[in-house]
Amino acid sequence: MFKKFSSEEVSAQNQVKASVQRKIRQSIAEEYPGLEPVLDDLLPKKAPLIVAKCQNHLNLVLVNNVPLFFNIRDGPYMPTLRLLHQYPNIMKKLQVDRGAIKFVLSGANIMCPGLTSPGGALDDEVEAETPVAIMAEGKQHALAIGFTKMSAKDIRNINKGIGVDNMHYLNDGLWKHHLNF
Amino acid sequence: MPPAGPKDPPSLSENHGIIPVTVLYCPVCSLPAEYCEFGPDFEKCKPWLINNAPQLYPDLLKDANEKEAEKVSEKLQSAGISSAGADGAVSSAQSGETSSKQEEVKRLPGGKIKKKDKHEVVIEKVVRNRRKCITVVKGLELFGVKLSDASKKLGKKFATGASVVKGPTEKEQIDVQGDVAYDIVDFITETWPDVPEAAIFFIEDGKKVPAA
C-alpha cells in the first residue's frame, strides 16, 4: 500500500485539536492495550500531534515529525514498522514461510497457503478485519503489518485466496521516508 | 497496575516494565540486519555485516576468510613463479594490492588521484561593521546539501538574512548575518544527520574541532 510514497503524496499536514487528539489516543489505547504503559511517552498529551493526510484516504499520525501510526478511512490505527520493532508484543503475530518473504517485501498480499504451510504459524484467536504483525520464518523482527481479510480459522479451513492484506512492509515508501516530514 | 513504590528499581518504575527493543538496522539497506539478504544489494551489506552482525550470517565469515586465503596464495605463487625476474613479480604483486586499494580512491580522467576531498564544513566569523558580523559556512555541498535550501532554512531558523555567496572560484559559501557560530553546529547536525559533528571546524587562527 505504501509502494510509492514520498512527501508529494502528502496533501495536508495539520496539528489536531485536543479533542481529536484525545480520541486518537483513546482508540490507540483500545486497540493496543500492550502499549498503555508507554502511551504517555509515545503520544504525550502536551505534545503537538500532527495528522498528515495523504492520498487514498490515508492518515498518518506524527509526533515530532516521526510517523507513529496510520489508518485508512477511520479504520483501526496501525503502528509503523519502526514502532513495531521497538515494541514487538503489542500486536498478534502471524508467521509466513520463507518462500513468501520476498513477495511480501515487494508488497504482495499474504495468501492463505503461506500461513498454513509448515513454515508458517497462525494464531487461532485472530479474527477478520484486525491489524496483525507479519513475522517471517526464521526471523526475529516483523516483516510487515497486515490487515486480516479472513479469520484465522477460515484461513486454516478454506486455505485459498488472500488471507491478510499487506498494509506496510519493510523498505516500502513509508519505511524509507520516515524522517522526511 | 501496582503503584510504583519507592522500593521499585528505577527502570521498572519508569516504563512499568516495558522497554523498547533496540533494533540493529543495516546502514546500507536500512533493514534490520537479518533481512539484508532480501535487500536491494546484499553484496554491499556484506562487509558491514561481517563486522557488526557475524552471528546472523556465519557463512559470510567463512567465505571472507576463504577469499583472503586465496588472494595470499595467489601472490605467493606469482612471486615464486617468476623468481628469476623477482623484482618485476614482486612489484606487480604489490601494484595488484595497491590498485585494489585505489579502486576506492576517486580517479580523475587523466589518471591523477583526486586528493582534495576533505569532507569538512568550515565555519568562520567575519566582522562587517564594528559590532556586526557574518557567520560564513563553507563545505556543506560536500555532504550533499543543497545550498539554496540550506540558506533558506538557516535564515528562517535564526530569523536573519542568509545568502549563498560565491567564494574565490567554484566554492560557494553561505553567509548568515550575525554571530550564530555555536548555534549553527547543533542546527546543522540536527537538520542534516549526514554531517557528523567531528567534520565541522571553526576557524580560530587555524582549525579547531567543534562541539565547543
From TrEMBL, chain A:
Q: Which UniProt keywords apply?
A: Cytoplasm
The Gene Ontology biological process annotation of the record reads: formation of translation preinitiation complex
- Cite a single GO MF annotation: RNA binding
Q: Which Pfam families match?
A: Pre-PUA (PF17832), PUA (PF01472)
Please give the superkingdom of this protein's source: Eukaryota
GO CC aspect terms: cytoplasm
Q: Where in the cell is it found?
A: Cytoplasm
Annotated PUA domain residues? 92-171
The name this protein carries in UniProt is PUA domain-containing protein
TrEMBL record, chain B:
Q: What is its main location?
A: cytoplasm
Q: Does the keyword Ribonucleoprotein apply?
A: yes
The family assignment reads: Belongs to the DENR family.
Name the chain's protein: Translation machinery-associated protein 22
Under InterPro entries, the record lists: DENR/SUI1_TIF, DENR_C, DENR_eukaryotes, DENR_N, SUI1, SUI1_dom_sf
Q: One GO CC term of this entry?
A: ribonucleoprotein complex
Molecular function as annotated in GO: mRNA binding; translation initiation factor activity
Assembly and interaction partners:
Interacts with the 40S ribosomal subunit.
Localisation: Cytoplasm
Compositionally biased residues, Low complexity: 78-96
Name its species.
Rubroshorea leprosula
CDD domains named in the record:
DENR_C
> Could you tell me which residues belong to the region Disordered?
68-110
Ribonucleoprotein as a keyword of this entry, yes or no, is yes
